[in-house]
Design goal:
heterodimer, A: mainly alpha, B: alpha+beta, about 30% helix, binds iron/sulfur cluster, binds FE2/S2 (inorganic) cluster
C-alpha cells in the first residue's frame, strides 16, 4: 500500500484573485484600446459616437471574447464582492438605465425592444440576472460561514420535504400564478401574428422563437444535423445524466460556490454563455440575412459584408489562406484521405481528450466518479467546449467544417 | 517572529463515510476502512500518536470526498519537525517524475508507535459500529460493560471522558438504553404503511386495484395507439405535376437570375456566364429556408442562418454544407422545360450531367 510523505503546506499564497482581476481588466481593455487608438472607432464622447463605439465593439468575435467571457469569469472569481448589495444594486441600476435608456437614444433599438416577440427577452434578462445574484449571494454568505466554521444560511434543516402537502401545494400555487400571468399577458399584448407564409419572400431575418435563438445561433457554426439534432440531444442527455453522475453530496440543499466550483462554472457556462447570451445576440445583434448589426445600427438589408468559409481539409492540403501553413499539394481525390486531418482531430478531441483529462488534471475526479460516470461527463464536457472552439475558429480562421463529407451528408 | 505550527490532537469521523478507502491510503496509521465504515484505530485515539502524523492526517481529511474526517489541533511553538521531511520528500519525489504522488516516503521516517490508550481500547472493544447513514442515530453505539442498564444520566456523563469525540456521549446513551436513535423518515413511513396494511388487510386487495389500474392504462393506451395509426399514412396525396414550362429560350437573354418561378415552383432559372441555363432549387441546403437573390452582391443569401451562395449555386459562406441543387432542365422545341422530379448535386459530380443544364 502506498503511503504519502508528510506534506506540510506553505503559508505563502500569491494574491491570485488580484492577479486574475488585473489580467481580466487588461484583457477587456485590449479591444477598446486597439480599436480606438489604432482603428477608426471613436471615443464615446457624444451620443452618436457612443452608438458607433458600442456598435463596433459588439461584433461577436470582440464582445463574446473580450467582454462576456471575462465578465463571466470575473463574476465567478469575485462572487463574494459583486453580490454584496452595495455593489449589486448600483450595477443593476446602471444596467437597467443602459437597457431601457437606449430606447430613448436609438430608434432601431427601440424597434427591437418593443416588439411583442421580444418582451420575454427583457423578462429573461432581468429574471436571470436577479436569480443569479440571489443564488450567488447566498453562496457567498454560505462560503464565508463555512470558512469560519459557522452554520449555513439554510441551517441544519431536515432536507426532506413531504410531497403532500408541502410540494404539491407549492406547485399548485406556482401553476395558478403562472397561468394568471400568461392569461393577463395574452390579453394585454396582442399576439405578433404575421402574414401567411409566402415562398417568394420569407421574413428577413427569419428568427426562431426567442428561446431557440441560441440554438439558431449555433446553427450558424455547425452542420444542421449537428446543431439541430446531436447537440440538442446531448444537452438533454447531459441534463438527464447530471444527477446520476454527480455523487458528490456537497452543495446538496445549500448554496455554495467554493465547494463545487467546477460543476457550477460549467453549468453556468452552458446556461448563461451558451444559451442566454446567445439568445441576446440573436435578438439584438442578428439582422437581415442573419448578418451582424450593432444594437444601434439600422437594419439595412442591403449591407452585405463579404465572408468566405474554408474547410479544415482545405487548410491542411492546400494551405491557401495562411502562408506557410498546409501542405500545398491540393485536395486528395479520396474523400476519406481528404478529411483525414479533420477526422483525426475530431476523434482526438471528443474521445482522446477525455482520456487525457482522466489521466491528468481530472484524475481525482476520475477516481471519485468511476470510469462510466466520468466519461459520460467528460464527453459532454468536451463537446460543450467544442461550441466556443468552433466559434472562435470561425472568427479567426473563417473555418467552416472540421470534417466535410457532403458526399455522405456528414459535416462537423 | 516566533514560528508556530499545528499539531493534531484528536481525530474523529462524523457519520456519512462512503467507504472510499482514500483516508487509509493517505494515513494508514490512523484510519482503518472496514466493509461498512471507516474507523479510527484505537492507538490513534491518543494525542501523542497523532501529533507526529499531523501532515498525513490533514492530507487524509482534505482527501475525504465527503469531508467527514474532522480533527482538532493545537498551536505548538517552533518549527514543525516534519518541515524538513517535506522538502526531503519533495526532492526525492521530483526526479522520479512525481508519478504516483504518494510513495515518495524514502527518508525512512516512521511515526513513533504511540502507547495505546487503555480506556479507548476498552471502549472500542465493547462497541458496535454501524455505517448506516439513514439510521439517524450516532454511528457508534456503545454497549457499556461498566455502566448498568438504565444508568442515570449523570453516571453516563461522568463515564464519558471529556476529550471523547463529540458523538461518544450520545453513542453511550444509546448503548445503555437512555436514548433511542430515531428511525429515518423512510423507515418510519414504511413501518406505518406496514402497520396499516396489517390492520386493514388492504395488502391483498391493493393488488387487484393495481392490476385493474395497469390493465386499464394498457387498454386505453392500446386503443389510442390503434386509433392513431390511421393518421400515419396521408389519406389524400396531392402531387402537382413535377414538370413546368419555363418559357422560350429568348426569355432568358442576359446572364442573370430569373426569379419569376421562385414563388410558384421554388425554382430559379439562372443563365450563367458560361451560357448554361440551369434550374436551381430555392431550398437552402442548410435547413431548407428560402434564400434571397441580391443582384448587387451577386449572391443568394439565406435569411435564416446567413448561408451565401454564388450565382451558380456554389455555397461559399455561412453554414450550408453543399451547393444549391439543380433540377432537370431540357428543351422541348425552343421551350424550356424544368422537371423537378430530378435533382443534380454538385458534390456528387452530377452537374456534368447533360440533363442538368441547357446550352444557350
Ligand atoms: S472517512 Fe472519508 S476518506 Fe475515509 S473511507 Fe470514509 S469517506 Fe473515505
Ligand atoms: S436554412 Fe439557409 S442558412 Fe440555415
Amino acid at each position: 500500500m502506498e503511503t504519502t510523505a508528510p506534506a506540510g503546506r506553505s503559508t505563502y499564497r500569491p494574491p491570485w484573485r488580484l492577479l486574475i482581476g488585473a489580467a481580466l481588466v487588461i484583457f477587456m481593455a485590449i479591444p477598446i484600446v486597439t480599436m480606438v487608438i489604432f482603428g477608426d472607432v471613436p471615443m464615446p464622447t457624444s451620443i452618436d459616437k457612443f452608438k458607433e463605439f458600442t456598435n463596433r465593439l459588439s461584433v461577436p468575435e470582440v464582445s463574446l471574447t473580450f467582454f462576456f467571457t471575462p465578465l463571466f469569469v470575473a463574476g465567478f472569481v469575485f462572487y463574494k464582492e459583486w453580490t454584496k448589495p452595495v455593489v449589486a444594486i448600483p450595477l443593476g441600476i446602471v444596467f437597467t438605465i443602459f437597457y431601457f435608456g437606449s430606447m430613448v437614444i436609438d430608434a432601431n433599438y427601440f424597434a427591437i425592444l418593443e416588439k411583442p416577440d421580444n418582451v420575454p427577452i427583457s423578462m429573461m434578462l432581468f429574471g436571470t440576472g436577479f436569480l443569479m445574484w440571489w443564488a450567488m449571494r447566498q453562496a457567498a454568505i454560505n462560503d464565508e460561514n463555512i470558512r469560519q466554521g459557522k452554520p449555513l444560511l439554510e441551517g441544519s434543516k431536515d432536507d426532506k420535504v413531504l410531497v403532500w402537502p408541502d410540494l404539491v401545494y407549492t406547485e399548485l400555487i406556482c401553476i395558478v400564478i403562472a397561468s394568471a400571468i400568461l392569461v393577463i399577458w395574452s390579453i394585454v399584448l396582442r399576439a405578433p401574428l404575421e402574414a401567411p407564409a409566402n415562398p417568394e419572400g420569407p421574413p428577413n431575418p427569419s428568427k426562431a422563437p426567442w428561446y431557440f435563438l441560441g440554438l439558431q445561433e449555433m446553427l450558424v457554426y455547425f452542420d444542421p444535423w449537428m446543431a439541430g439534432v446531436v447537440l440538442p440531444t446531448m444537452i438533454i442527455t447531459g441534463l438527464i445524466g447530471m444527477p446520476y453522475c454527480d455523487t458528490n453530496p456537497k452543495g446538496n440543499g445549500y448554496y455554495t460556490v467554493s465547494q463545487r466550483p467546477f460543476i457550477i462554472f460549467n453549468w453556468m457556462f452552458g446556461f448563461i454563455v451558451l444559451w442566454v447570451v446567445l439568445i441576446v445576440f440573436g435578438t439584438f445583434l442578428r439582422g437581415p440575412n442573419w448578418n451582424f448589426y450593432g444594437p444601434y445600427e439600422p437594419w439595412d438589408a442591403s449591407i452585405q459584408p463579404a465572408m468566405t468559409n474554408i474547410n479544415l481539409s482545405d487548410y491542411f492540403w492546400n494551405g491557401e489562406n495562411l502562408a506557410g501553413f498546409g501542405l500545398g499539394v491540393g485536395l486528395p481525390e479520396n474523400m476519406w484521405l481528404r478529411e483525414l486531418p479533420g477526422i483525426i482531430f475530431t476523434l482526438a478531441f471528443c474521445f482522446g481528450l477525455p482520456v487525457l483529462l482522466a489521466r491528468t488534471v481530472m484524475r481525482r475526479m476520475y477516481l471519485q466518479m468511476g470510469a462510466l460516470r466520468f466519461y459520460f461527463m467528460a464527453i459532454h464536457f468536451v463537446i460543450m467546449g467544442m461550441m466556443p472552439l468552433k466559434m472562435v475558429l470561425r472568427w479567426v480562421l473563417t473555418l467552416k467544417y472540421f470534417i466535410y463529407l457532403p458526399e455522405l451528408n456528414f459535416n462537423l | 517572529m516566533a514560528t508556530t505550527h499545528e499539531q493534531v490532537v484528536k481525530v474523529w469521523i462524523e457519520p456519512g463515510c462512503i467507504v472510499c478507502d482514500a483516508c487509509e491510503t493517505d494515513c494508514p496509521e490512523v484510519f482503518e476502512v472496514t466493509e461498512e465504515t471507516c474507523l479510527i484505530r484505537p492507538e490513534a485515539k491518543s494525542a501523542d500518536f497523532t501529533k507526529p502524523l499531523t501532515p498525513s492526517i490533514q492530507t487524509a481529511a482534505e482527501g475525504c470526498p465527503v469531508d467527514v474526517i474532522k480533527f482538532d489541533t493545537v498551536e505548538v511553538e517552533g518549527e514543525a519537525p516534519w518541515a524538513g521531511q517535506e522538502e526531503e520528500a519533495a526532492a526525492a519525489g521530483a526526479p522520479s517524475g512525481g508519478g504516483g504522488g504518494g510513495g515518495a516516503k524514502k527518508g525512512g521516517w516512521e511515526p513513533p508507535e504511540g502507547p495505546p490508550d487503555p480506556a479507548w481500547a476498552g471502549l472500542l472493544e465493547t462497541s458496535h459500529t454501524s455505517g448506516s447513514r439513514s439510521s439517524g442515530g450516532p454511528a457508534v453505539r456503545v454497549r457499556s460493560t461498566t455502566l448498568p442498564a438504565k444508568a442515570p444520566i449523570e453516571a453516563v456523563t461522568a463515564a464519558v471522558p471529556d476529550d471523547a469525540p463529540p458523538d461518544a456521549l450520545s453513542a453511550t446513551m444509546v448503548g445503555v438504553g437512555l436514548a433511542r436513535p430515531s428511525a429515518s423518515t423512510a423507515e418510519s413511513i414504511k413501518a406505518k404503511g406496514e402497520e396499516k396494511a396489517r390492520k386493514t388487510g388492504v395488502g391483498s386487495r391493493i393488488r387487484i386495484w393495481l392490476l385493474l389500474g395497469w390493465g386499464g392504462l394498457l387498454f386505453c393506451g392500446a386503443t389510442v395507439g390503434a386509433a392513431l395509426q390511421a393518421f400515419i399514412v396521408p389519406k389524400v396525396t396531392k402531387e402537382p405535376p413535377s414538370i413546368f414550362k419555363a418559357g422560350k429560350l429568348a426569355d432568358f437573354p442576359d446572364v442573370a437570375v430569373y426569379e419569376q418561378f421562385k414563388g410558384s415552383q421554388q425554382v430559379w432559372i439562372v443563365r450563367q456566364s458560361d451560357d448554361k441555363l440551369v434550374a436551381l432549387s430555392t431550398i437552402c441546403t442548410h435547413l431548407g429556408c428560402i434564400p434571397n437573390w441580391w443582384p448587387g452582391d451577386a449572391k443568394f443569401k439565406c435569411p435564416c442562418h446567413g448561408s451565401g451562395f454564388y450565382m451558380n449555386g456554389i455555397n461559399f459562406e455561412g453554414p450550408a454544407p453543399r451547393p444549391l441543387e439543380r433540377h432537370r432542365i431540357y428543351l422541348d422545341g425552343d421551350t424550356v422545360m424544368v422537371d423537378k422530379a430530378y435533382l443534380y448535386r454538385e458534390e456528387k459530380g452530377q452537374w456534368d450531367d447533360a440533363n442538368s443544364y441547357v446550352m444557350v
